[in-house]
Structure formats: C-alpha cells, structure tokens
Write a structure and sequence with these properties.
With 446 residues, this protein is an alpha/beta fold. It contains 12 helices and 24 strands. A hairpin with a 2-residue loop joins strand 4 and strand 5. The chain is globular, with a radius of gyration of 21 Å. The N terminus is likely disordered. Bound molecules: shikimate-3-phosphate.
C-alpha cells in the first residue's frame, strides 16, 4: 500500500512500528553535492550534476555560487547545469546566507578567498554560534583578511591575493582541509596540508577529476597533501553517490525493529565514511554488503540489513573521523544493545549543528536509557531489544541528526517518541519521512 510522505514541519512523533521491509535508494551524499557545485563553479566550462542532493544546505551553496557569478540552472529533479567562472568569482553585493550549513560556509570561505573575491557570510542561529577560526586563522596565514565577532558569523572576507602555506590542522576536520585546498587553488606557491588523523577525502578525489594536480602521501604520521598553486579546473560531469551518513537512520531502524529486512542501494563506500557500518558489525549487526558501480570516482555498495541482536562495544577515538556525524544514531543502536557501549574521542561533537554530545545524551535519557557523559566521551548502558521505554519529548536544538535519531529510537520503543521540531531534517535529508514511511515506519506530525 502506498503511504503519503508526511510533511516535515513542527513537532513530530515516531510510533513503535512493525518490521521494516523493502528497498531504499540511498539519498544523494551531502558532502559530494556541496563539492560538485563549488568545483563546477570554479571550473572553466559547463558541468552537469546528476542526482544532486536538493536539501536546504546544498541549495544554499547553489545560491552562493550563483551570486558569485556561476550560471546555475536546475534541469529537473537532481539534475543541474553549472557554467563555471574559470576561477574568477565576483564579490557579491549582498551577504551569502548558508543557513544551517558548516560545510557550505567553510568550504566557500576557502574557495572565495582563493579566487581573490570578497564576501559577507551569514547563517541561522545554529551556524552563527559555531566556530569559524579553525578556517579563518589559516586563511589569514595565507594572506586573507577576515573580520568577524568573536570568530563566529557574521563574517566579512576582503578580496586579497593568497600565498600557499604548510599547515597541520589541530583538529581532524575535512571542512578545514577542504577550505584550505580550495584556497590553495588560487594561491601562489604550494599549499601543504598535513592531517594526523585522515578525514573524508572527497575534495582531493574530486579536485583530481576536475584536472587539478595534487600529491598525496601517507605515512605513520598521517596524510600529507601538496597542491601547487595557482591551478585551473576543467568542467566535469558528476553523478552523486548515496550518503553513508543519511542511510544510517534506516540501517539502525532495521536492526532494532523486530522482523525487519531492508536493502539500501547505491551507498558511497569510502573508508573515511564507513565507521558506523564497521561499528554496527562489531556489535553483531547482520549487514551484508555487495559491490555497486563507481560514481564520481567513489566506490558504491548495496547493503542488506536484518533485525539483529546487538551487543555493547568499545568504539575507539581513532574511528571518530570516519563516523563523525553518526554518533547520535549509534547511540540509538547502543540503547537497544545488550551491555555497555563506550564511545571515546567525541570532543568535536560539541561543535556540530548543536552540542551533539549533550543532545545525544539528553535524547537517550529522556527515553529511559542510562548513561554517563564525559567531556569527550559517552557510555551507554544498553537495555536490550524491546526494553527501551521511550515516551520522551526530545529537544532537537536546530540539529537534523538529533531529530532523525530520536525518531528512529521511537520505532522500536515501548512508547512513542516525539521531537519538538522536524523542520531541520530538510537541511540534509528532505526525503527522510517519505523513505522511512515507505519502509514501514510510522511517523506522524503532532
Ligand atoms: C563534512 C565534514 C564533517 C561533517 C560534516 C560534513 C564535509 O565536518 O561533520 O557534516 O563535507 O567536509 P568536520 O570537517 O567539521 O568534521
């Protein structure tokens, strides 16, 4: 039976649901979608993007590159044409509004600085409370001039000519690395980034596809990327693979709802993103993986997941970069596991769309799950299948991943779980309610 997708607005409720069954086409990857628009806008010529994620965050990046002079046209669902600026962005007259998106604003700060243009940057209340110095400090070392209040948005970048630097970001962040590589495209001399803990490498892969020369070497000390500048990009067609972060919600839902068996198709299979799958398998999850076609230079996989008896595990800090967005939904899996799950190295969660460490703890506590929270750790005492009481109202703090995780928790709890606001889900996964409902989940506006 076909069920209509509920609208994602205001308070929402997830009811205990029967087995989840069927096939989900993975929603397009958010990181790849931002990068495809930005690289196409910097390139010379016409790029076509197929399967772009049309979420609020990505649409803000599309508006920003259009305001900077790229010609951006939507041809149909997920199909976009971008005629690039050949690396010459024009300083826009009005502020660029990145809404809720840290990836959008940070990558674009680097790209705009490297192009020699200026811009004013603004965002919503969540984005305006997030730290920007992690990007603006190294950009200033390259010669950029950025003014902001207390290292947060709103911020203004003045047009300037950059020089390459050698920099080791003090935190593991693909956003910082990517911003500096994009800035390095327009800089004189070499930009060298040393990462002690490797983060998602989509920018490097896609830059190469757009014709940029990069040298990447791995050592015991981490990864070193050298980008000689200045360089130009040639237009490319990009097909966006499925998002390994967004599919985490359906995946965990299938594992915790008795009798479930689902397939998820077209998921990007990149080791810098698959820490959740690795961890769930260690917990005893019944997950089968089959190879899919390559897309945008990335491997893909098709996943089959069945309801499973999960056990608590220790999740090492070193795994954090490969599952940095997945801890809230891992917390949900841990609540349904037998025994204790310990997660370490979570300090960066406090700088996400909300303090996601505190938010995950609050989400679980309000639904009867015992835990201990530290400065950068979370220990969850699993209740086992069928024993999570639920019944809580969860505050989502403008954070899409807390919202979706709370709803997944409610699908297998004894009592429905509600959230105060579902609207932020559209920032990363506008099809969430429709996809979950099609698999058999009961989600309702309140
Ligand atoms: C992203 C990097 C991560 C992640 C974000 C997307 C990217 O942020 O949390 O959702 O596309 O580069 P950090 O680089 O700040 O860890």
């Amino acid at each position: 039976m076909t069920q209509l997708a509920p609208q994602l607005q205001g308070p929402f409720l997830a009811r205990p649901s029967g087995p989840l069954t069927g096939t989900l086409a993975a929603p397009p990857d958010k990181s790849i979608s931002h990068r495809a628009l930005i690289l196409a806008a910097l390139a010379q010529g016409e790029s076509r993007i197929t399967g772009l994620l049309e979420s609020a965050d990505v649409l803000n990046t599309a508006k920003a590159v259009a305001a900077l002079g790229a010609k951006v046209e939507r041809l149909g669902p997920g199909g976009w044409r971008v005629i690039g600026t050949g690396g010459r962005f024009a300083t826009p007259h009005t502020p660029l509004d990145f809404g809720n998106s840290g990836t959008g604003v940070r990558l674009m700060m680097g790209a705009i600085a490297g192009s020699g243009a200026g811009a004013d940057f603004i965002g919503d209340s969540s984005l305006s409370s997030r730290p920007m110095r992690r990007v603006t400090d190294p950009l200033e070392l390259m010669g950029a001039h950025v003014s902001s209040t207390d290292g947060r948005l709103p911020a203004t970048l003045a047009p300037s000519q950059l020089n390459g630097i050698s920099y080791a970001p003090p935190i593991a962040s693909a956003q910082v690395k990517s911003a500096l590589l994009l800035a390095g495209l327009g800089a004189s001399g070499e930009t060298i980034i040393t990462e002690h803990h490797a983060t998602r490498d989509h920018t490097e892969t896609m830059l190469r596809a757009f014709g940029v020369r990069l040298d990447i070497t791995g050592s015991e000390d981490g990864v070193r990327i050298r980008l000689p500048g200045p360089q130009s990009l040639q237009a490319q067609d990009v097909t966006v693979p499925g998002d390994p972060s967004s599919i985490g919600f359906a995946l965990v839902a299938a594992l915790i709802c008795p009798g479930s068996r689902i397939q998820i198709e077209g998921v990007m299979d990149n080791p810098s993103r698959t820490g959740l799958i690795q961890t769930l398998r260690e917990m005893g999850a019944d997950i089968e993986i089959a190879r899919g076609p390559e897309m945008a230079g990335e491997r893909t996989m098709n996943i089959t997941a069945r309801h499973s008896t999960l056990r608590g595990v220790d999740v090492p800090a070193a795994r954090a970069p490969s599952m940095i967005d997945e801890y809230p939904v891992l917390g949900v899996a841990a609540a349904y596991a037998i025994g204790t799950t310990r997660m370490a190295g979570l300090a960066e969660l406090r700088a996400k769309e909300s303090d996601r460490l505190a938010g995950t703890a609050e989400l679980l506590r309000r639904n009867g799950v015992a835990l201990e929270i530290g400065e950068d750790s979370l220990t969850i005492h699993g209740r086992g299948a069928g024993s999570v009481t639920g019944g809580g109202m969860v505050l989502t703090h403008h954070d899409h991943r807390l919202a979706m995780s709370a709803l997944v928790l409610g699908l297998a709890a004894q009592q429905p779980v509600s959230i105060d606001d579902a609207s932020m889900i559209a920032t990363s996964y506008p099809g969430f309610a429709g996809d979950m409902t099609a698999l058999g989940a009961t989600l309702e506006p309140m």
